[in-house]
Every structure is written in structure tokens, then in C-alpha cells.
Amino acid sequence: MDDTAKGVAQGIARIEERIAAACLRSGRKREEVLLMGVSKFHPIEKVEEAWKAGLRLFGENRVQEGIEKFSGFYGKGVDTKIHLIGSLQTNKARTAAFFFDCIQSVDRISLIEKLGEICVERDSPLDVLLEYHTGEESKMGFSGLDNLLKGAEKSLSYKGLNLRGLMTMAPFTDDEKIIRASFTRLREARDTLEKQFHKKLPCLSMGMSGDFELAIEEGSTLVRIGTAIFGERPK
Ligand SMILES: *Cc1c(COP(=O)(O)O)cnc(C)c1O
């Protein structure tokens, strides 16, 4: 193995240990938490190393970069999944809807309408998460529970969309209380939506390299890890 391969495999092994410990601490099963490798800005070689080390779920921020990197990748081998986690412009919605396995960053009604219209053409519904603004600093996502409820209602009205849960980014701060509160808010919003719409929303996508353990303690079912697996992103 060269250094890159060792680095990526070791990064995954270390993250796995920390995920297992966080699950143990919070009385959760390891299988309840999916590990996503966020490969944005990193080359395909690193993705291949991660795949060899057993990783099967990847996240990309940009439509074009995701397609360029992954379209030839193991023919997207049966169990390999790629999610879009960065903001999606409406004019790229069609391309994204036919490439990604899930769009986690659905953040406005107009995008839901666009995706809903496009996805009637898909063989199976497109998995989507609604991004919820749970912290003070980040500007992404639906803001306020009322708007989130409207987004969920809209998503559920389209046969081509399969609403699976919620995504958030906690504020960038060292203050654990603030980060944890952000994750708690996402979980509670999910619980509210489940009650309101009598629909299970099993996916809570929260936690990144700097805060995934707190996220797991607060109920995360999918952690999105970039730097701690692939290293610093090249600028
Ligand atoms: C870049 C990114 C990540 C990964 O961030 P790291 O801190 O490198 O782990 C996770 N989620 C989203 C939405 C991102 O844009």
C-alpha cells in the first residue's frame, strides 16, 4: 500500500472505532449509523482506496464534480451509493435527479416542485432529505418549523419523491452545547414531522469530522465524514 492508501484506510479504521464507542456510550447499535465518506475536492484514487477499505456510501457537494468522479466508478457497483449533500441549483435538478441515489440538500419549495415534476420519469422514487437550518450561523436549509412542515407536505405530495428524513449542519463553534442543541433540534423536528404526517422518517443525517460523536449521541443515523477520512481538502 502506498501512503495515500494507508492514510485513507487508517482514517476509516479510526472513525469506525470512534463511531463504535459513541454508539456504546449512547446505548445504540452500530448498524443504526451509516458512515458516509465525503469526497468533495478529493481525487478518484482516494475514493477507490476508501472503497477497498469497505466504504460504500459517498457524498459530493457539486453535481458536476460528482458525475465526473463517480460515473465510471465500479459502474456504481450494486451496493455503492452516492448522495448529493451540497446546495442544488434548480437548473441542475434534472441532471442530479438521474445521477444521485439521494439528494440530502433539498432546501426550498421551488426545488421540491422541480424535482417532483422531473421524478415522475424515474423508475423508482428519488430518495430526498430536507435540509433544516438548526443553528444560528449557517444560512442553509429550511428556516423555522413551519417552513419545514410545508416542505415535508410538499415532498409527500409527489409520487416521484421518497422523503426519508432530515439533514443539518451544526454551527462551526467549539461550544458543545450549541452543537448538541442543533442536533437535538433536528431530531425533535423529525419527531414532529413523523407525528404530523404519520410517516416514518428513518434518516437523520447529522455529524461531520468535528462533531459526529455528539451527533450519534443525539440520534444521528448517517454521519458525513470528509477531512477525518480523506485528509485536508486541496484548495
Ligand atoms: C464538506 C461537508 C461535510 C464533511 O465535512 P468534514 O468536516 O470535512 O468532515 C459534511 N457535510 C456537508 C454538507 C459538507 O459540505
UniProtKB/TrEMBL annotation:
InterPro entries: Ala_racemase_N, PLP-binding_barrel, PyrdxlP_homeostasis. Residues 32-234 form the Alanine racemase N-terminal domain. It comes from the Bacteria. The modification N6-(pyridoxal phosphate)lysine is found at residue 40. The lineage of its organism: Bacteria, Pseudomonadati, Spirochaetota, Spirochaetia, Spirochaetales. Belongs to the pyridoxal phosphate-binding protein YggS/PROSC family. This is Pyridoxal phosphate homeostasis protein. GO terms for molecular function: pyridoxal phosphate binding. The keyword ATP-binding does not apply. Its cofactor is pyridoxal 5'-phosphate. The keyword Methyltransferase does not apply. Pfam families: Ala_racemase_N. It comes from Leadbettera azotonutricia (strain ATCC BAA-888 / DSM 13862 / ZAS-9). Pyridoxal 5'-phosphate (PLP)-binding protein, which is involved in PLP homeostasis. Keywords: Pyridoxal phosphate. NCBIfam families: YggS family pyridoxal phosphate-dependent enzyme.
